[in-house]
Amino acid sequence: MFNILITDKIDKSVVDKIKNPKFSFDYQPEITPQDLIKVISNYQGLVVRSRTKVTQEVIDKGHNLKVIGRVGSGLDNIEVKEAKKRKIIVINSPDSNSEAVAEL
Length: 104
Known about the structure:
This protein is an alpha/beta fold. The chain has helices at about 10-15, 35-40, 55-60, 80-85, 100-104, and strands at about 1-5, 25, 45-50, 65-70, 90. Strand 1, helix 1 and strand 2 (about 25) form a beta-alpha-beta unit. The chain is globular and about 30 Å long.
């Protein structure tokens, strides 16, 4: 089982769309940075938006992390160089808000 922690608010339909028996999701949109550091070693995947900062300490404690995903266009809240040094894949969704921007 691939355990994924979601630490920021996302629409529940996103999780519903990617449900798979090989994945387990923990949705903790209010998790504190201190609690994230305590539990991150239990997960292979981490999904964030803008609120959660994926610092070097989070990456250091994330011994089992394989993937960090950002629901959004930037990667400024993720220590990308540190993640890549540890062979953690970092992805984002740069076109996720293009329709909303166009409507604005």
